[in-house]
Amino acid sequence: AEVSTQTTGRFKLKYQPQLNNTNLSSTMEPMDVEGSPVCLDLDSYIGQYSGNVCLQRLKFYVDNARPSSENYRLLIQTAMDCKNMTVYTDAVEALSNTCPSEAIALNVEWITQTSKYLTNKVDRLEQDLKSYQLSQDKENIRRTHQMLGDHYHDCGDLSNAIKHYQKSRDYATTVNHTMEFLLSIIKVSVYLNHWTSVSNYIKKTEHIENSDPKILRRLNLAKGLCEMSQKNYHQAAKIFASITCDNWDNEAVITCIVNTLLKLPVPRIHLYKLPVPWIPLYRTPPISS
User: Fold this and answer.
1) Calpha distance 28→10 (Å, rounded)
2) Per residue of the chain (289 residues), what is the pLDDT tens digit?
3) Which of 24, 39, 199, 254 would be 234's cystine partner, CB 3.0–4.6 Å?
4) The whole model's pTM is what?
5) For residues 75 and 87, is the Cβ–Cβ distance under 8 A?
6) Which of 81-85's residues contact partners 24+ apart within 8 Å by CB, and which partners?
7) Cα(246)–Cα(28) distance, rounded to whole angstroms?
8) Beta strand 4-8 pairing with 11-15
C-alpha cells in the first residue's frame, strides 16, 4: 500500500492506510516519529501536577526531550521537593553526562538531611506499629501498614510499599478495608508493570459489592491497561470508551496509561500532553457494540 505522510507540528508521521478490519492488534502499526521533541512551556505543564505524579511526568519529558541543562535542573529540584533520592542522584549524573559544562555536585547536605528525615519517619511509624501490636489494636495496625505503604510509594520505593499494603490485608475487618487494600495493590502493581498481579487483584474486587463510581472507574482503567499489556487494543478501547469524559481526572492512573503506552508498539506523539491518552493514538475502526 502507498505510504502517506502527515506533518503535525515538528513531527512528521509516516503510516500505512487503515485497513477495513476490526482487529486492532493485526491492523495497527506503530508510527515512525521523525524530528525533535515538541516544545512546550514545561513550567506551566508541570505546575498542573504535584507529588509523585508530577515527578514521573517530568522525568518522562526530560528523558525523551532534547538534552537541556534547564530541564535537568527542574527535574533535580522536583526530585528534591518529593524527597526522591534515587531520581535526584540519577538526574545529577545525567546532567553531568549530557551537559558537562553545567554539571553540579551532589548536595550531600540535602541527601543527609533527607535520609535522616525519611528514616525518622519510618522509625516513628514502626514504633507505633509495635505499640499497636502489643495492644492488639487491629485497626491501628492496619492503618499504620497503610501509612507505611503510602510513605514508601511517595518515595518511589514500590517494593516496600507493596509489602506493607499486603500486610494490611491481615487486619482488614470491613469490606471497605479490603477494597482499600486491593486498590492499593493494583495501583502499585500498575506502576511496576506487574500485569498478572493487576488482573488477579481486579478479579478479587469482583467478589466485593461496590457501587462507588470512583472505585469502579479506577478498576475499569486498570482493566483497560491489562488489555493493552496483552495487545488487546480493541478491547482496551471499548473499556476506556465506557468511561465518561468527566471521569478522566485521576492523574496517577492517566500517567500509568501514558507510561504503559510507551512500552507498547503504539504511536508516541504528544503522550505527555494527552488528557485522555488513547483517543488520538490509535487509528481505530468503528467499535462494534
Assistant:
1) 23
2) 333 333 333 333 333 333 333 343 333 333 333 444 455 678 887 888 888 878 888 898 888 888 889 999 999 999 999 999 999 999 999 999 999 999 999 999 999 999 999 999 999 999 999 999 999 999 999 999 999 999 998 888 899 999 999 999 999 999 999 999 999 999 999 888 899 999 999 999 999 988 888 898 889 989 998 998 888 888 888 888 887 655 444 555 555 555 555 555 544 444 444 443 333 333 233 333 3
3) 24
4) 0.69
5) yes
6) 82/51, 82/52, 82/54, 82/55, 82/154, 82/155, 83/114, 83/117, 83/118, 83/154, 83/155, 84/52, 84/55, 84/155, 84/156, 85/111, 85/114, 85/115, 85/155
7) 28
8) antiparallel
What are the cell numbers at 130? 509495635
Count each helix (H run) and each strand (E run) in the chain, helices first. Answer: 14, 3
For residue 107, the 8-state DSSP code is: -
One-letter amino acid at 197 equals S
